[in-house]
Amino acid sequence: MTETVIQLGFWELLIGSIVTMYMLIAGGWVLAKAGRSPLWILLLLFPYLNVLAVWAFAFIRWPFVDRAPSPTQPDEG
Question: Quick count: other Cβ atoms within 10 Å of Cβ 41?
Answer without folding.
Answer: 22
